[in-house]
Amino acid sequence: MLSYQHAFHAGNHADVIKHLCWLGVIKALKKKDKPFTLYDSHAGAGLYDFTDSLSAKNKEYKTGVSSLSNVSASCELLNDYITLCQRFVDKDAYPGSPIISVELKRDHDVLHAMELHPGEYAKLEANFAAYAGHHSHCHKRDGFEGLIALTPPKPNRGAILIDPPYERANEYDDVVSGIEGVLKRWQQAQIVVWYPLLSERAGAKHGASERMCEALSALGAPCFKAEMQVAENTHDAGMYGSGVMVINPPWQLDTTLSVAMNEVTGYIGENSTCRLVWVNEDN
Length: 283
Ligand SMILES: C[S@@+](CC[C@H](N)C(=O)[O-])C[C@H]1O[C@@H](n2cnc3c(N)ncnc32)[C@H](O)[C@@H]1O
Fold this sequence. Notes:
- By secondary structure, the protein is an alpha/beta fold.
- The chain has a single domain (6-280), classed as 3-Layer(aba) Sandwich (Rossmann fold).
- Helix content is 37%, strand content 20%.
- It has 9 helices and 10 strands.
- It has helices at residues 13-29, 53-58, 76-89, 97-104, 118-128, 143-150, 171-185, 208-217, 253-268; strands at residues 37-40, 47-49, 93-95, 110-114, 136-139, 158-162, 190-198, 223-229, 239-247, 273-280.
- The longest helix is centred in the first third of the chain and has 17 residues, at 13-29.
- It is globular and about 45 Å long.
- The structure holds S-adenosylmethionine (SAM).
- S-adenosylmethionine is lined by residues 2, 4, 6, 15, 18, 42-44, 96-97, 114-117, 120, 142-143, 163-165.
- Keywords: Methyltransferase, RNA-binding, rRNA processing, S-adenosyl-L-methionine, Transferase.
- Its EC number is 2.1.1.266.
- GO terms for molecular function: 23S rRNA (adenine(2030)-N(6))-methyltransferase activity; RNA binding.
- S-adenosyl-L-methionine binds at residues 19, 42, 97, 115, 142-143, 163.
């Protein structure tokens, strides 16, 4: 079943924390000249138009990226995110993770973006056309299978973004087994996993993100969790926020991401809060 369409949610608070973190990872990789490879296992369409009927339905971007529009942030990571997005927001659009990657990577860095939904893949391919010849590849394939087939990269530097729709309850287990498989092949992989924070109303999925994070921490690699809550966790709240677990995070990303998230919460609503906790310390 592939019914999820990211256009409904593009640019919302969850995209903000996910893409801020991903940008922080890419910025850290760019500190060295040596090329790196980026993997996006669940890439989506790449570019979203706020005026199309899906995005326009709930206008989720209004409580996410739009509340940061033209803000002059005091923190560098947030400023970089706003500057990148503003070029798109000015045209009523939002860049998804593969476009953020292709915009930020250098010519000699490689990107593999994987997407399984035929309609979303067709859009991704069209949106990638403008970047042809820049070592940017899109693949119509299962992201978990693709990660095993395409890792480790040569040279052995890079990062993975894992951003499933979590439509199926067993997608949480797929993330854990997928990452376990990758770490066996590529121990140093820097991995960002996005997850939703769901209230009791979510039924069987309630608590699934928390259980997934526990299973990921049991894999033993250094990791932290960064979460942003936009509403109170009451029974009926639904998705009250989201988080990213970062495995093998780059040096100082914990500090820069904390500062950026703290500043974001000041702009996106008085009920929003954030926290970053190390799960397995980096010794
Ligand atoms: C949350 S969206 C991705 C959003 C994107 N990462 C971004 O930040 O702009 C999840 C995407 O994963 C796709 N998908 C679902 N299962 C997949 C799988 N097994 N492999 C690859 N893509 C998958 C869905 O079609 C959907 O487009």
